[in-house]
Amino acid sequence: MGAAPQAPRTRVTARARDLRFDAGSLSLNLVATVGRRPVGPVERMGDVERLAAWCSGVGLTPAPGYEAEALLRSLHALRDAAYDIASSLLDGHRPSPASVDLVNGLAACEPPVARLELTPAGVRPAPGGDLLTVDALLSTVARDLIGLVSDASRGKRLTMCASEVCRMLYLNPASGRARQWCSMRRCGNNAKAAAHRRRRAATAEG
């Protein structure tokens, strides 16, 4: 992304460190594990406990025995590449070749194919079918990003939160009114409250 205006100084509250699962796609939910990009970044997935919470929140289940620290490092690297690539759709900058190579390399692993099993009670997903190796998990996220970039209709819905503090990348809904804020309950309400304070201050000065 190009040079950004300096955001106002704000406290890094517990809410600012909350994991976000409302960006509209798996890869954008990964990007959202860093808040307040590009000014004053806030790490939201900095340890293995947060990694486990993020995987649970997006519905990805690593197979038993995985090295959590190694997966965390790999997701951090993929996160940076995903932000570089996704944000290029908004500001037109040229993504780093390293970002593109990383995403392509991770996507090359074939994720497991979902399977069904027939039981006396009927058809159900085969047990263990949702367990992912580290390579498969990373591939799933990388392929989601490639799908986002490849889909012109989804690319047009990609936007950035209007809050100079937040700047979260998210997908607007396919139908209905486009959102200016990542969340009305968060940045939207904050903006309304700030505007109200400015109006009151202007009235008092007048």
From TrEMBL:
It comes from Streptomyces griseoincarnatus. It comes from the Bacteria. Residues 157-200 form the Zinc finger CGNR domain. InterPro entries: ABATE, ABATE_dom_sf, Znf_CGNR. This is CGNR zinc finger domain-containing protein. It holds the Pfam family zf-CGNR.
